[in-house]
Amino acid sequence: MKKNTIWSIYGGDWKGMTKAVLEAADVKSAIPKKDARVGIKPNLVLALAACNGATTHPEIAEGIIEYLREHGFENLCMLEGAWVGARTKDAADVCGYTDLSKKTGVEFIDTQPDTATAVDCGGMELKICDSALALDYMINVPVMKGHCQTRLTCALKNMKGLIPNSEKRRYHAMGLHKPIGHLALGIKQNFVLVDAVCGDLDYEEGGSPVQRDQVFGTYDPVLCDAYACTQLGYTVSDVPYIGIAETLGAGSADLSRLEEIVLAQPEKPMLKPQHRVDRLLSHVRQKDACSACCANTAYALLRLQEAGKLNRLTVPVCIGQGYREQADESALGIGRCTAGFRRSVPGCPPPAGVILRFLEENLR
Ligand code: SF4
């Protein structure tokens, strides 16, 4: 098991991409026994279909179920609790998990009415749902998206769906970061399979999806969230719960040790950017641009906007396969397709953090 590896894949066949990541990471060999109780933990924060940027695509959960069954694992369940104020059943119905459970015969456990046990999580006592504690192996399937309070939500924060509602309220009273960091010691995420297909720009509840068409996986939830920071244009220090989890020994946020294995590069043109994403991308010239490049640039432009610097971006920003083999003296090029530009940032796609630094260096 390579803890410092992230397997990444881009495309439109989310189920097939999921199975490719699981195969590449050899997850089957990491599960301790054939009759292990394996839990799949999506993000069903509220009753809103995955295309809105808040919840996990059911195709990804289905890919996990198929992969596990093909390798002889039958003791499976899906488990999740919606946020306070929403009913898990409504979310499971709307997001396709009730149908998926019927279709596959895999039990869906609503953790909202579950019993819970207090667990010592690195010196902080936190209550955890018993259905989560009963698992032998957990595959966490978060959505990589923005969050209005913690900036980012991905692997570590997704574990909040496995605590009682009363505990969720208490986390907010404690400022979120500290208990989320400590919870990483109470619940073992054995593998993280991230839905980075169209996570929201900056809200947990969706509404401004940013189409990226990526799925990625890793054995280290801390590394996962550190990598997610770079994809959204943040640094690890911008999201304090990552550092807290790392200090407690839940994983490593050291991106200098990261080995990213890209199983398939982006190739799908962005079809229809939406809402605020569309407005951000009005600064961009696109010619056959992949969704991942557009999405990462949108995140970088948002970070510039938040810093009050966007109005200093006065030269055109170009993205897309249509710029291959082209030279340009004045525009800023994003990604390896613009390698012929005088000023271009490499990568396919470059992470938002790298794009942000490049744009900042080239502001008026
Ligand atoms: S660099 Fe080119 S091929 Fe790569 S993601 Fe960007 S637009 Fe697509």
Concise structural overview:
With 364 residues, the chain is an alpha/beta fold. It contains 13 helices and 16 strands.
Indicate the multimeric state.
Answer: single chain
Strand content: 15-25%
Strands ordered across the widest β-sheet: 4-3-2-7-10-11-1-12
Topology-level CATH name of the largest domain:
Rossmann fold
- Helix/strand order, N-terminal first: EHHEHEHHEEEHEEEHHEEHHEHEHEEEH
The count of domains is 2
> Main β-sheet: number of strands, strand sense, barrel status?
8 strands, mixed
- N/C terminus separation: 47 Å
Total count of strands: 16
Task: List the main descriptive attributes of the protein structure presented here.
single chain, alpha/beta, four-stranded parallel beta sheet, 364 residues, binds iron/sulfur cluster, 2 domains, 33% helix, Rossmann fold, eight-stranded mixed beta sheet
Describe the structure.
The protein has 364 residues and is α/β, with parallel strands linked by helices. The protein folds into two domains: 260 residues, LarA, N-terminal domain (Rossmann fold); 85 residues, no CATH class. Strands 4-3-2-7-10-11-1-12 form an eight-stranded mixed beta sheet, sandwiched between helices. α1 crosses α3. It is globular. The mean pLDDT is 94. The protein binds iron/sulfur cluster. Iron/sulfur cluster binds next to α12.
